[in-house]
Amino acid sequence: MGLCASAPKSRTNPERNHFQNHQKPNLLGSNHHNPPSTHKPHKFSGENSPQSTTAGAAGGGGSGGATPPFSEFSFSELKTATNDFSKDLIVSESGEKAPNVVYKGRLKNRRWIAVKKFSKLAWPDAKQFVEEAMGVGKLRHKRLANLIGYCCEGEERLLVAEYMPNDTLAKHLFHWENQTIEWAMRIRVAQYISDALNYCSTEGRELYHDLNAYRILFDEEGDPRLSCFGLMRNSRDGKSYSTNLAYTPPEYLKHGRVTAESVVYSFGTVLLDLLSGKHIPPSHALDLIRGKNIILLMESHLEGNFSTDEATILVDLASKCLQYEPKDRPTIKDLVATLAPLQIKCDVPSYLMLGISKQEEAPLTPQRPLSPLGDACSRKDLTAIHGILLTTHYRDDEGTGTNELSFQEWTQQMRDMLEARKRGDQAFREKEFKAAIDFYSQSVALGKLGMHPDSLDMLNEAAELEEKQQKHDRRGS
């Protein structure tokens, strides 16, 4: 056993959950302890989304780059992204009393997203919905499938989150096809989710609704993430747990309220899932634990491939989480402190332990036909770019005024500091073709820095400007 740094990041694909022995979870929850944000969210344009620089934002976005800032989407954008909310793109459905559906979608900037669409009457108060969404939208953590936006038009209520392409923990535990999850990965799942809950708690969002194996998703690299949807309720008055009462915290059955201790109880049920590979009622599991029948609790496929000492610690922790009295359960910080020292195989990527291929995004392609200059920029061929610019009488450093920068000098500054845009804007303001060169230059620099979605945006904008200039030149001749 030993403490180790976190493994590589990853994403998951929530799957359409028509599984036995567990009702599909309501993928949202809410919390009144955190006051709603007062900042105005970005009005989102799918074509040019800014990248988030929020501290701690280490998530992916389905098309590379950092997690984008929380934004307001239009209904038409999300309708387009989900192909008019196609049934073929449904990844999860849940709740007869508070029905909601989660769709897979793709924005114009090629970012994959998960879109949760509520029933018409779930949130009649638009202001309340927006305030709750904005509260969750402030969270940014690499262990969360982060909320990146919302839509509130007329009666429409939708949430937008990072998309996780590698299924749910439930799929990998209960419905695996090629291989079951190995022991070290199960410990990693438990630790990462405890880290996510601990972060949410420190940010004033300690209430998570109906935590279960369907709320834990795997990203591009196979790393487990906690769905942000469980941080919000399914409706203004909606239930916080599924109708399967066997897995519901006792105090919720009594009072109908979610507490921080309720979250710990639900975490205990997830530990049981990880230990047994089955979704078994806590009462039955506790009977086995009290009878010292720990081996009967463990998944048979793990036989000979797990540490008895580590399993004993996890069983003991699960037992404490499932105590009837909330005050007898450990805190979230206790969970983190117990699980962190158990981590093993720290240098092995999650996707290898899951037995899946690492998801690589297909190369980005521009949406407009490219000129020779655009093509050279898309290939980041600096020699070809410079040659084309020389033939179009682009001036070198010598003899230029103080407000113009050479292509080589400007792109080098882009690589170093990403501050050249304002200089380029000033230098090339007079002619649209030079503005196009400005954007092409940004595209090359951003591409070199690995910021591919932004690079594609610049390339498309440059192609559009160049096309306009060519049309103007043809009309003039």
UniProtKB/TrEMBL annotation:
Region (Disordered) residue spans: 1-72
Organism: Mikania micrantha
Known EC number: 2.7.11.1
InterPro entries listed in its UniProt record: BSK (IPR045845), Kinase-like_dom_sf (IPR011009), Prot_kinase_dom (IPR000719), Ser-Thr/Tyr_kinase_cat_dom (IPR001245), TPR_BSK1_C (IPR058209)
Keyword line: ATP-binding, Brassinosteroid signaling pathway, Cell membrane, Kinase, Lipoprotein, Membrane, Myristate, Nucleotide-binding, Serine/threonine-protein kinase, Transferase
Main location: membrane
Domain of life of the source: Eukaryota
A matching Pfam family: TPR_BSK1_C
Reactions catalysed according to its record: L-seryl-[protein] + ATP = O-phospho-L-seryl-[protein] + ADP + H(+); L-threonyl-[protein] + ATP = O-phospho-L-threonyl-[protein] + ADP + H(+)
Gene Ontology biological process terms in this record: brassinosteroid mediated signaling pathway
Domain Protein kinase: 88-343
Ranges of biased composition (kind: Polar residues): 20-37
EC top class named in words: transferase
Protein name as catalogued: non-specific serine/threonine protein kinase
Similarity comment: family membership: Belongs to the protein kinase superfamily. Ser/Thr protein kinase family.
Entry's transmembrane regions: none
Annotated GO CC locations: plasma membrane
Annotated membrane topology: Lipid-anchor
A GO term, aspect molecular function: ATP binding
Compartment(s): Cell membrane
